[in-house]
Amino acid sequence: MTQNHQSSSSPPSVALVQPPKRRARLLTLGPSATIGAIIVAVVVLIAIVSIWWTPYGPLAVNTGAEFLRPSLAHPLGTDEYGRDVLSRLMKGTQLTLLSSLGAVIIALVIGVPAGLIAAFKRGVAGEIIMRGADLLYSFPALLAAITLVAAFGASTLTATLAIGIASIPVFARVTRSTALSVLANDYVLAARAYGRSNFQIARRHVLPNIMGVLVAQIALLLSITILAVAALSYLGLGTPPPAPTWGGMLENAQNYLYQDPMLALWPGLAIAITVFGLNALGDGVRDLLDPTLKGRS
Amino acid sequence: MDSEPMSSPTPPLFELRHVSHRYGSRGRSVLALDDINLAIDRGERVGIVGESGSGKSTMARLLVALVQPSEGEILFHGEPLATKRAALLDFRHAVQIVFQDPFGSLDPRLSIGDSVAEPLRALGIQGDRDARVRELIDAVGLPANSLSLYPHQLSGGQRQRVAIARALAPGPSTLIADEAVSALDVSVRAQVLNVIANLVQELGLTLIFISHDMSVVRHVCSRVIVLYRGQVVEDNQTDQIFENPQHPYTQTLLASTPRLE
Amino acid sequence: MTLLEVDDLHLSIAGVELLRGVSYAIDPAQRIGLIGESGSGKSLTALAVMGLLPHESVLSGSIRFAGQELVGLDERRYSKLRGDRIAMIFQEPMTSLNPLMRVGKQISEVLRIHQGLTRKASATEAIALLTRVGFDQPELQARAFPHQLSGGQRQRVMIAMAIACNPDLILADEPTTALDVTVQAQVLELLVELTAEHGCALMLISHDLAVVANVCDRIQVMYGGTIVESGATWELTHLPQHPYTRALLATSHGIDNLHQALFGQLPTIPGSVPQAGNFPAGCTYRGRCERESEQCQTPPNAIGAQHLVRCWHPYAPSHEER
Question: Which domains does chain B possess?
């Protein structure tokens, strides 16, 4: 193909439009988000480690060693049965994360496709989905949990399910709104013009472009579900005792506030720090992705 | 004033018969195109000119089968356009489009090379894709090292060239340019117009150039169709339109275009 | 006395240099055009005069309006000037008008703030202004919200707001770019009429050389954050001295040229417009200029007074351009 380059030529290499400084900024989180990331990493590490090892058995009753102050042997002391608080806390991390992660996964797996469908099918189908989400959103998760527990008994599964279902609308909404803004771009039209189906467009163009927003939302939702899981187990609607859940430990510690006020501190602190970490991380990820969402320079 | 298509043994490439298009629901709808009848032959370079509300964007979408007309029919090679996606695949090979917005027409997550290769993947075109992509990028005047870059690293004019390369990937015989240079700087506009003009000539493409800018259309089209409020008000050879405009709207349009002394 | 005197303006935002030494002057009732492509800094020049630059801007140089220095002026005094003595019209009326306020009210607000009119008096004056800018049912249309009006009508509202307090200077940043060609002609005509009537100076910013040439007495060409050529309209469009101006004219003429063969090659400028932060050192037109030399690695000085050009190798003014 002979080409006439004389008038439409461009210089040998394409000039970079973005100054280098901006690209570097794209890859670093802010200070609070970095702290959040570290916290989350530590928590996840503890959860994983506790699958195989905790300093003591979390259920190991140790009569004669009740209400011990923090010491080298028991860094966080012991509870009313002489059980090591640190070990229980570690195990609790695993249970809490499991529940909240499970809930988020349920919300993700149902909410994202629902949001995508609502974005693609703007008519009646889309409306039905969004109004359904509204309905679900307005239904208190706690009430749903109580109902499920009454029907099926308290367990990790019921807590996870209740919170998961209650969180579906969060993902449905976020997915739909970001998908809509992606679908407004001409590259989606171009994709249709070379034969892509809706499904292919969702997979190839929409999901990758909303991924960042979804990741940020996952982190934020995790912080909410951890609180929700703690609340449910506090109320006795989650994993039944003697399994160590943070909420359960908190509830339990209430009874012994005079003897050992520290007992309530540790699970409370664990919840607070984890929630803060996830929030900071989620905010940081979301801020990072904001300017590049639509690819405008 | 419609000019009749020349009678020829082969049917025209595109034929619009009583095509109307309406947006919105029954209660409050907007009539974008009103009973359009026209034909475009293979190899023609047609400009479709109009302002906002003329229906030209709707026309672009109808011609590339992104939208189906509310009324009337569109014939391609004498056959009515299919409605199902699968049946349209051949058509999609043959007719491609370049859009106006250089910032929104490329997926920011895909590299230039990937963007240009997309139609090849979508339409299942076999063969050495890398070679084809390199050939296309070269044809639009971009250097080979741009393949690994991302849209935000290119200027508006460069992105439009990529969009043109992508449109040519499936080897279409018709190219539709929907305000393809309107969002570009003046000096860049000329570059991209040259690219389009060269490629259309070399590849023997049929060109349908939609624009609000008469002077741009004048450069690349031999026939101009003027749209006003969803209707064709004038349809003639380019030099006739410019030297001897018949319809008052065409005359106003020409008179309003600012000229350097 | 010169109405507006801009002297050696330098602007950086977040360490990126956007304006490098912009200087120009506007006389009372003069119509002056500012031509440039994206990245030239033309809009920023206007925003600098209005004091509407973003917070992180570092602006140095001098802007003297009717003898008063504007650079470093405190916000309180600046806001008294804006709308009253200097007004600005933006490109996109949909985003520069308050979508929640009826247009009549938006106009009367300007009057109440700057002229202290009562609600009734300002409403009446607003209707008079709407009539002046061409609305045929001003009482009714004053009650419309921006989204209920067409693009051209919204720009007319913006013009009404701009002339409401009889300013000395109007800065119009691409006021007709977003409009249809037929509407553009009408809006430009209105702008010219009103500025002449009120004795108000106009700075028209555009990328369209033809638009500016038809409206303005003087044209300034901006490229890469600085003014590369400035002169009377006829001289600049017929005897351009800066290589960029010549190339720009060739491109505009080319598309418009009656004698251009169908599919002939349009004259183009090789390369692409440098974006902010990527301006080449020395003369910003380097890399695209047909008269470039070693000397161009240092920024060229401005030569000439009435017709100013910033180039080491300008074309001689006797060169007839076509």
Answer: 14-256 (3.40.50.300)
Q: Is B163 touching A (CB cutoff 8 A)?
A: yes
Q: Where are the domains of chain A?
A: 98-177+213-297
Residue B69, φ and ψ in degrees, nearest 5: -65, 145
Locus of tokens 């090892």? A53
Enumerate the residues of chain C whose CB falls inside 8 A of the CB of residue B189.
251, 255
Q: Is B190 in contact with C251 (CB distance < 8 Å)?
A: yes
Q: Among A187, A189, A195, select the one facing B89 at the smallest CB separation.
A: A195
User: C137: burial class by Cβ within 10 Å (0-12, 13-18, 19+)?
Assistant: exposed
- Residue-wise over C84-115: b if at least 16 C-beta within 10 A, else e? bbbbbbbbbbeebbeeeebbbbbbbbbbbbbe
Interface predicted TM-score of the whole assembly (ipTM), two decimals: 0.88
CA distances from B61 to A182, A191, B223, C185, C189 (A): 19, 13, 20, 29, 35
Compute how many other C-beta atoms are within 10 angstroms of the C-beta atom of residue A127: 12
Q: Which CATH architecture has domain A98-177+213-297?
A: Orthogonal Bundle (1.10)
Q: What is the pTM of this model?
A: 0.83
Strands B79-80 and C302-303: unpaired
Cα C22 to Cα B131, C272, C292, distances in angstroms:
48, 22, 22
The one-digit pLDDT tens for each residue of chain C (322 residues) are 899 999 999 999 988 889 998 999 999 999 999 999 888 889 999 999 999 998 888 999 999 999 899 998 888 899 888 888 999 998 887 788 999 999 999 999 989 988 888 999 999 999 999 999 989 899 999 999 999 998 889 999 999 999 998 999 999 999 988 888 888 888 999 999 999 999 999 999 998 888 999 999 999 999 989 999 999 999 999 889 999 999 888 887 765 554 445 556 777 888 777 877 778 888 888 888 888 888 888 888 888 888 999 998 888 876 544 4
Instruction: Report the gap between the CA of C288 and the closest CA in chain B (Å).
Output: 12
Contacts of B85 in chain A (CB under 8 A): 195, 197
Which chains form contacts with chain A, at 3 or more CB pairs under 8 Å? Answer: B, C
Q: Do B192 and B184 contact (CB within 8 A), yes or no?
A: yes
Q: Cα-flanking dihedrals φ and ψ of residue B42, to 5°?
A: -60, 135
CA distance B69 to B62: 7
Query: Taking CA atoms, what residue in B is nearest to A187?
Result: B105
Q: Report the C-alpha gap between C157 and C187 in whole angstroms.
A: 11
Whole-Å CA distances, C250 to A249, B257, C257, C318: 80, 18, 10, 17
Check if the beta carbon of residue A155 is closer than 8 Å to that of residue A240: yes
Distance CA B50, CA B47 (A): 10
Chain A residues whose CB is inside 8 A of the B180 CB are: none
Using CB atoms, pick whichever of A7, A16, A21 lies closest to residue C266.
A7
Contact assessment for residue A202 and residue A142, using Cβ atoms and an 8 Å cutoff: no
CA atoms of A263 and A76, how far apart (whole Å): 8
